[in-house]
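User: Here's a chain of 158 residues. Predict its fold as tokens.
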Amino acid sequence: MRVRPPAELRVLRDLFETCDPAPQRLVEAAYAAASRKWSGGGSTALRLVGDSADAPARTRRAGMCDARVLTFAMPGRMLEMDLIPTTEGLFRAVGLVLGRPGHSAPAGDVVLRHATGESVGALDERGGFAVDDVPRGPLSVVFRQERSTPAVADWLVC
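Assistant: Prediction complete.
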């Protein structure tokens, strides 16, 4: 059963839609992100366990890279990824998927889902990957290991 919002909220929504509407591309990106959020049936969780954006601000020297480091955990694996700014509004994602000591490097790929689609980076023989031209904005990481269920991370904004 769908509950209708109170009259006050409907009036407020109409006021915002009339006086300060959201850009259509932003609305479309939000709906695309929401549909991807709920379409991961059968996948395992890829939990965000570390984000350098949450660290206290540090003093930086001129010329230092402003990469954002994201660390994800899943059963038996860790995925660490650097988001390195390249040009205005774009990142290069470089990372590594680590397994338990003594196990071989994983085979598969890392998919970065974003508002304009998906970007895929295949894992090399050591578990490393690189993805160019990742757009700034909503981002979800999916680890697709061969012969296994994909591990999907929740959406975040970069």
